Amino acid sequence: MKKRRLVIRTIILLVLGAAVAYTLYANFTKDNKQKVAIGEMAPDFALVDMQGNKHRLSDYRGQGVFLNFWGTWCPPCKKEMPYINNQYHQYKDKGVQVLTVDIDESALAVNQFSDRLKLDFPIMIDTNKDVMNVYGIEPLPATFLIDKNGKVVKYHKGELTENTIREFMEKIKP
Amino acid sequence: MKDVKCECGHVNPHGTVLCEACGKILDERENKDQLLDMRYEGSARRSQTYNKTIVDKIWNFFSSVKVGVWLIVLTLLASILGTVLPQKMYIDLPPEVYYKQEYGWFGELYYRLGFHDLYGSWWYLLLIAMIGISLVICSLDRVVPLYKALKVQRVTRHVGFLKRQRLFGINTEINDKDLHLVKEHLKERRYHVREENGDLLAEKGRFSRWGPYINHVGLIIFLFGGMLRFIPGMFVNENLWVKEGETAAVPETGETFYLQNNQFILQHYDKDQNKTFEKALERAGDVVKNYQSNVVLYKRVSDNLPGEKPKLEKVKEYKVRVNHPLDFEGYSIFQASFRSELKSMSFFLANKNTNQSVGELEIDLQDPKETYDLGNGYAVKILNYFPDFEFAKDGEPTTKTRVPNNPAFVFQMISPEKPEGETSFVAIKQTIEPFGDNTYKMAFKGIETKNTSGFIVRKDSTLWAIILGGILFMIGVIQGAYWNHRRIWIQQKDGQVWISAHTNKNWYGLKQEIEKVLRDTKLNIPEDQQQSEKTDKEGI
Predict the structure, then answer these.
(1) Co-location of B332 and B265 in the same domain
(2) Are residues B297 and B418 in the same domain?
(3) Does B1 map to a domain?
(4) Is B219 contained in some domain?
(5) Residues B442 and B500 occupy one common structural domain
(6) Which CATH number goes with the domain that contains B190?
(7) Does residue A28 sit in helix, strand or coil?
(8) In chain A, where the domains are located
(9) Which of A44, B57, B167, B326 has fewest C-beta within 10 Å?
């Protein structure tokens, strides 16, 4: 009888405790909820670059992918672009592909930007912000590192230095 | 820790004050010459009786009404604190700047303590959660013994129990006819009458005792509904901006639904059409009559990747107006806002001396072309386009955002006279000729705007819990407030007839009822012992 009471009490307290714990956990994580988690498969997408070539993320399986989101109006993006371009040349033959996605701008603005900075890597425009939404990009620039198996290794928000970019490239080099 | 066996033979749980069956006083402390405390029928509140394991200790903590009241008081104080300064969702600056700037050191302290997001803070949630736990445990700990005590109560009660009820009276004359009449009256008044060895218990409205517990169940379901909002997908409240003529994915639908905005309509009340309100309209200026977006809802039918063009199937057309949302599959799309954006700008190329136009061009600000050929050897090239122009700190022209709020261009004007081109920087109300005097100029002709509708996408799958909780809450309140649990004992003791009565509220009503029940008999109306106690003390 007494034992049964203890069991019932324990169960009720556990149920209540679990509900409270879940609520607190959900409350803590709601602000930094990341749509694409580290260690998980990077969501596949397909975009057409400024030269008209279609790039599908999953086609780069076997290579590391340095995926950068940017805009011509964002000063830190402008600063890191030449560094990315340098490292792109260093690593393109070592199995690291650079893909960059401009968020919803005109082709003119993007082309002029890339001409001015002499960028050689593929640039794609995400006109409907589909890819941006899937990756849950908030502030630009944002960089995802994807390894040769298509898994997300790192998510970096904000500007990159040339050294960091080199480290990143080393990280995903197959 | 033993159960207590009463002299009537009933076994009561440890800690019982009044025998559940006969009402004899079991707890020595209670044995004073005053009225009985009838709360919870003198049953043993489980938690108070023993205190062994950690589980019991936690249980006992939450079982205390005193703790519950303190939790509520603390929550109220915290809630008050959150109203002292605006919460973070009502400010339009970053909180680390806002509070210090607006309220000085006090604001800084307020922000550092985390009161800028008080209602979303972990400790506030914890307080609410503890009130919920206290509610569950307090209720369980009281309703179970109360239910048992009321269930096993016997008709025949102990003398001590009867004597110490608030309404109590003794009759020396016993008349079977009178007793029979009283029983008839009680039944007329819908009492449930039980008889045992000539003793009588009349009871009604017992279900009123469950009112507070039903009410608590409602509250707990309500809190549960609030908790459900934290589960992903249960509650959606997102903004969606769609330009006229464009289609956008509806957020939180997993890229399944798309909304196309065909037209945004803004209508004002017309003074001439509404003569009655002419004066009011003159005073108030423009009064909006209608905000409306004509939309088409699509469902994606293709299995495309993000970035690829989806294949869409039309679901329905709808005119979204304020308070008339587009509803589908649990989602509602509300008309919430709108803004006007520049769509295109037109210029003409003119000779500065003659002011004669040699050709016109219209530039789509979303997607400008590189070259506009005007014919006859005239052309305009866009060397640079800044949708939201400003001068950067280093003096370079740059753009703040991707939205064409303040477009500026660097044009190259090609003419038969100047085939290598002349450069001109053109912004709104501003022209700069960086390389000296030009022969030609880009003259501003006009702009076109287009509207963007602001929608709120909302889905609330927790409403059923909130509504159910609210309904149960009210049922509980009504049940507990509008019905009384009344009991009348008419029992034969020592050759006398004792009449005692108890109610959980409205003693005046009970007294009135007893008068009616005892009418046409020689039985005395029982006396209100509490009142006579008082008059004794006051010496009246």
Answers:
(1) yes
(2) yes
(3) no
(4) no
(5) no
(6) 3.30.310.50
(7) helix
(8) 1-33, 46-172
(9) B57
* Residue B512 at interface with chain A, using a CB cutoff of 8 Å: no
CA A168 to CA A91: how far, in whole Å?
11
List all residues 6 or more positions away from B13 whose beta carbon is below 8 Å from its beta carbon: B3, B4, B43, B44, B46, B49, B145
* Residues of chain A that touch chain B, judged by Cβ-Cβ distance less than 8 Å: 2, 5-6, 9-10, 12-13, 16, 19-20, 22-24, 26-28, 30, 43-47, 56, 71-73, 75, 103-109, 111-112, 124, 126, 128, 130-131, 133-134
Residues B407 and B291 in one domain: yes
Name the closest residue on chain B to residue A124, using Cα atoms: B307
ipTM for the complex shown: 0.80
Identify the CA nearest to B199 among candidates B164, B146, B148, B162: B162
Q: What is the pLDDT of residue B29?
A: 64
Residues B95 and B115 in one domain: yes
Which residue type does A50 have? M
Domain of B71, in residue numbers: 45-150
For the domain spanning A46-172, the CATH number is 3.40.30.10
* Residue from the list B120, B307, B401 with its beta carbon closest to the beta carbon of A73: B401
CA dihedral B248, B252, B254, B259 (to 10 degrees): -20
**Structure tokens given for B112:** 């550092």
Q: Per the CB < 8 Å rule, is B402 touching A133?
A: no
Residues B64 and B121 in one domain: yes
Are B62 and B114 found together in one domain?
yes
Which two three-digit tokens encode residue B416? 């038969």
Query: Taking chain B (540 residues) in consecutive chunks of 10 residues, what is each chunk's mean pLDDT?
Result: 78 84 76 73 67 83 93 96 90 84 91 90 92 93 90 89 90 85 92 90 94 95 90 88 90 88 90 79 85 94 84 92 93 93 89 85 89 88 88 80 87 87 85 81 87 93 94 96 94 88 92 91 87 60
Q: What value does the mean pLDDT take over residues A114-138? A: 87
Last residue of a domain, one of B108, B127, B150: B150
Smallest CA-to-CA distance from B34 within B537, B529, B535 is with B529
User: Of the candidates B425, B460, B495, which is a domain's last residue?
Assistant: B460
Q: For position B540, what pLDDT does the model report? A: 43
Cβ-based neighbours of B434, under 8 Å, separated by 6 or more: B423, B425
**In this structure, what token pair is assigned to residue B349?**
């190329």
Computed from CA positions of residues B505, B507, B512, B516, in that sequence, does the dihedral angle turn out positive or negative? positive
Residues B401 and B518 in one domain: no
pLDDT single digits (tens) B323-364: 999 999 999 999 999 998 888 999 988 888 888 888 888 999
Residue B74: the pLDDT is 96
Let me know if residue B241 belongs to a domain. yes
Write the pLDDT tens digit of every residue in A140-160. 888 999 988 888 888 888 888
Nearest to A72 among B133, B227, B399 (CB): B399
Do the chains contact at B366 and A112, CB–CB below 8 Å? no
